[in-house]
Each structure stands twice: as structure tokens, then as C-alpha cells.
Amino acid sequence: MNRTGKVLIEASNISIALQGRQVLEQVNLSVHQGEIVTLIGPNGSGKTTLVRIILGLLKADGGRIKIQPGLRIGYMPQRLVLSENMPLTVKRFLSLGYKGQDSEMQLILNELAIEQLLDSPMQRLSGGELQRILLARALLRKPDLMVLDEPVQGVDVTGQAALYALITQIRDQFGCGVLMISHDLHLVMATTDQVLCLNHHVCCSGHPESVSQHPAYLELFGSPANAKLAIYTHHHDHTHDIHGDVKSPQKEHHHG
Length: 256
Prior knowledge:
Strand order of the largest sheet: 5-6-7-3-8-9
CATH topology of the domain at 7-84 and 143-233: Rossmann fold
CATH superfamily of the domain at 7-84 and 143-233: P-loop containing nucleotide triphosphate hydrolases
CATH class of the domain at 7-84 and 143-233: Alpha Beta
CATH architecture of the domain at 7-84 and 143-233: 3-Layer(aba) Sandwich
Radius of gyration: 18 Å
Largest sheet: 6 strands, mixed
Low-confidence stretches: 225-256
Helix content: 25-40%
Mean pLDDT: 82
Strand content: 15-25%
Shape: globular
């Protein structure tokens, strides 16, 4: 996708040190309307710190964040910790703080195929189901920008591909921009427009195909030949249900 939509958020020369250690140095990032931008990088490279600065949860030492006036952000955290002693159904969880129309919630439930989970306790959901509920909660804010921190955390490989396909579907349907943190470029290649490879500074950025060949990326992550998940760079011609099972006949080519 070309970057023709308006700029939703722009981070310029962001630098921050935490506990005496430089976490981010002169980082630039922008997300346009209708664009999926993925942050990748090793653990501890500053990805979540950058997102926290963008969300206004953390103040950078230097640089500036420019946000489209009135921008609505839907945030999906990396993990949700729920007390085992506090029973909470999916329906109750989604309605906490929600002031919109029932019809709007219904549309999102249908889109994410989670209607049948409404009466389930949150604590009993599978990894893939929980991530879809968290996605739904972020979407209920009617966001212009979705910020997703490791959205496939705790989901098996088949379910991961399905979730990434769903994120693209959400972008297409709702026209929002998406800023996503991932640790695996090969899983997100088919579903992202721009990639920023971060290791305290921006090592490389651009279209996923070009980043995957970039020397700085290869130095951090090794060559694509080592990536056992590279099969997911093709486009899916079948869909998965919420448990990761294929719903329609599978016609894909396996790349071994």
C-alpha cells in the first residue's frame, strides 16, 4: 500500500535512557491512515518503550511526537493478567467502560468470530480466543489507530497466521492505521506495509521484502533460509476458525 493516507502519528528523533542505559536513540517512525507498520527487533531492543512513548505513558528525553488532532487509539497490550478469583465473562469484560451501541459491538463480534464466547469465563479462553477478545476491546474504541503489542503472544503457529490475516481484514474493513510489535518478520511479511527494524536505533526500515534482505536485519536475525516460519509469507486462500483449524479446503503450496 502506498503512503497516501493522512499521517496519524509521527515520532521524530526519539531518545530515552532508562536506569542509565540508552534504550532508544534518534528513532523516527510514522503511521499513515490505512497502513500497517510493524516494529521488529530482538528482546530488549526498545520496541515496547517506543510504543509507550507514543501512547503518552512514558516521556522521552528527546525528540517529539506529533499526533493527528482528536486521534482515537485502540491499544492491545502484550498480556492481560486476570485474577483466578474474580469470575469475569467475555461479555462483561467487553462491556466494561463501553458506551457505544449494541449494534456496533455486534458488528465487531461477527467480524472477529467471537460471538459464541460471550458467556465464557475470561480465564478459560485459549490463547487465540483471548487475543481476539483483546482485539475486539481495542476495536470497540472505534480507533483511527490500532496499537498492538505482540498480538500473537501465546498463540500456536497456525493461529498466529490466522490472527495476522484478521488484523489485515480489520484494517481493510475499518480503515484504521495499525502499529504492531512483532518479533518475527517472516510471519508478518504478507500482512504489513512498512517494517521498522529496531535495536535501540533504527537499523533499517522499508517494505518487508527489502528489510528481510538488509545486512543489518540479517546480522540481527540470520538469513531467511533459517526461518522455519517462512511458509507464511504466501497469501492464504483459506480461512481458519478461532481454534486455528482450516475452515475451507486447503489449496496452499507448502514451501517445506
